[in-house]
Amino acid sequence: MRYSIRGSHRGPALLAAAVAWVTVAACAGGSPEGSGGTVSGPRTASSAVGAPTTAAGTTPAPSPTPTPTPTRTYPLSTAPLTVPSVRSHEAARGPGWRPAPGAGVVVARGSEGLADEGRLLAGELKIQYRGAVAARAGDVELALGGNGAAESYTLTTRDNRVRITGPDQAGVFYGTRTLKQSVRGSGAMPEGVVRDRPAKPQRGLQIDTARKHFTAGWIEDRLREMADLKLNQFELHFADDQGFRIASDSHPEIVSAQHLTKAEVRRIIALAQSLHITVVPEIDSPGHLGAVLRAHPDLQLRNVQGTARQGAIDISKPESARIVDDLLREYARLFPGGWMHLGADEYQALTVRDPAASYPQLARAAREKYGAEAGVQDLAEGWLNDRAAVVRAAGKTAKAWNDGFFRGGVVHAHQGIEVEYWTGKEIGARPPAEYLAEGRKVVNLNDEFLYYVLGEPNQFTYPTGRRIYEQWTPLVLRGTTPVPARYGPQILGGRFAVWCDLSGAQTQAQVADGIRMPLAATAQKLWDERKPAMTWERFRALAAEVR
Questions:
Q1: How confident is the model over 290-311, as pLDDT tens digits?
Q2: HEC-encoded secondary structure of 463-496
Q3: Between 62 and 148, where is the model more confident?
Q4: Which residues contact 461 (CB under 8 A, 6 or more apart)?
């Protein structure tokens, strides 16, 4: 590179030229590495026509042409990896979002009801919760709004911010679960927009605490696990032949030595509510009441020979209804959710060849109440309807097992009782399409896939997550064959059930470990019933990464 040197000022001119060279070199060296940009050198004096000179008689070194800093480009983002997987992701280019020092969780103005969700997420991400203030760079903002489906949410990641919106608090909460899992698995939330919603409104887990006592702490751990899987219904089967496991004020004489106190139950309910989970209590009758009948043997069902039937209460006696209704009203007050489960399965009076001959007192009561054509089946169906009326008066929807709904007869189960379909193996069990054809709402507890029975009695085997993931959908109500797709809207969802028939077969810890992957697979298929895009092996590995 040449510079014009004139007269006696050669020394200062050389100094100026040297400074100019250093400046140009520095500018060139400051260009981002790998940018592909070109740094233009200064024009020489010979190429500058009429160039001005300095007082020293030299031509000043021209300023280098500014070099623009190139914009960094990013590949299109991919969907966040979560369990269950998100239903829709709109890809975008950008760095995504990561928790960073100074980042916080805030709630939008008018969405102050999301404070609990915000505090929980902030603690999980180890960033600040700043409350109802304006979001800034690096923040996660939670907001109520939009007119999407219940429990839906939109999660937008853009400009180093995350915004989660939904029409209800549950939807926003599920958006925080997606963010938490994505960060836990990959360290970041990908750029773009997630639009997500559940396929089914009822998605749950059931625990049989009647046959095996589970501690409050263990149950609370399951609730937290459920919440991360976007499950929203937890059923407590706490009364059966083997035990009655929640304290009672109306009938303390029936309560087992090992039980949950009401204070513990209220703590469980409070945690569940904070995680958008409804706790559903079950008091199974007129069968499975052995724990109650031990304290009230006069109410035990006996046949014409005087032989007692295990767990069955004599529904011809008015006192039988009074004690069960006392309990239903007591626990309806304790449990604030919208459902109560009434059982209604496996009533032993209906498992004999001639119920009227074996139990003449029941046949007589049926005729007196429902007319000359009524039989024992009608008395049992009327019992279910009467208990459902008690539950409805308490503002709740009744649930009952499918083998408590009968064909024919003069009495029919109330249309508002939800059918919990579990088996086709019981005597007189009806195929699921019959209930659906009647217009009934059905919940899927297919014992072929969703029954985890301790000790594996009666040809039960522990279900595997892989089988649920690859073969089951909410349409598969019985066996392995789905019902017609037109019935899909009547199937409200499903529940994975733990039954403790051989209570000593597994410890609490073993149960928790055994149901971990089956529960994750169930959650996936209830959130999105379509065939999963991910292989089982990848799904299993992902579940370990993000949970």
A1: 999 999 999 999 999 999 999 9
A2: CCHHHHHHHCCCCCCECCECCCHHHHHHEEEEEE
A3: 148
A4: none
Measured CA angle at 183 (ends 178, 189), to 5 deg: 70
Express as a percent the part of the chain with pLDDT over 90.
85
Residue type, 451: Y
The secondary structure of residue 28, as a DSSP letter, is: H
Which residues are bridge partners to 208 per DSSP?
237
Residue 441 tokens read as 């709402």
- Give the residue ranges of DSSP H helices in 407-460: 432-437
Q: Mind spelling out the 3-state secondary structure of 57-113? A: CCCCCCCCCCCCCCCCCCCECCCCCCCCCCCEEEECECCCECCCCCCEEEECCCCHH
Phi, psi (degrees; rounded to nearest 5) at 98: -130, 145
What is the C-alpha separation between 210 and 501, in angstroms, rounded? 10
Asked if residue 391 lies in contact with residue 280, where contact means CB atoms within 8 angstroms, the answer is no
* β-bridge pairing 88-91 and 128-131: unpaired
- State how far Cα 85 lies from the chain centre: 12
Task: Quickly count: other Cβ atoms within 10 Å of residue 541's Cβ.
Answer: 12
DSSP structure string for 224-268: HHHHHTT--EEEEEEESSS-B-B--SS-GGG--SS-B-HHHHHHH
Q: Tell me, what's the pLDDT at 425?
A: 80
* Minimum mean pLDDT range among 21-25, 344-348, 437-441, 502-506: 21-25
Query: What value does the mean pLDDT take over residues 110-135?
Result: 98
**Token pair for 60:** 């000043």
Spatial contact of 129 and 142, defined as CB atoms under 8 Å apart: no
User: Encoding tokens for residue 232?
Assistant: 């929203």
Considering only CA atoms, which of 299, 215, 301 is closest in space to residue 254? 299
In whole angstroms, give the CA distance from residue 234 to residue 491: 18
Other CB atoms within 10 Å distance of the CB of residue 85: 20
Provide the 10 A C-beta neighbour count for residue 525.
26
* 276: number of Cβ within 10 Å: 21
Give strand pairing partners of 128: 104
Q: Are 279 and 223 in contact (CB under 8 A)?
A: no
Which tokens belong to 162? 């995350």
CA 446 to chain centre: 19
Angle between helix 216-228 and helix 262-274 axes, rounded to 10 deg: 10
What type of residue sits at position 540? Answer: R
E-strand ranges in 329-373 read: 339-343
pLDDT at residue 69, rounded to an integer? 55
Q: Taking all residues of the chain, what is their mean pLDDT, rounded to a whole number?
A: 90
Q: How many CB atoms lie within 10 A of CB 448?
A: 20
Alpha carbon of residue 508 to chain centroid: 22
Nearest Cα residue to 359 out of 403, 311, 309, 402? 309
Cα–Cα distances (Å) from 52 to 57, 59, 89, 288, 499, in that order, read 9, 6, 61, 106, 95
Whether the Cβ atoms of residue 182 and residue 289 lie closer than 8 Å to each other: no
**C-beta of residue 35 within 8 angstroms of C-beta of residue 28:** no
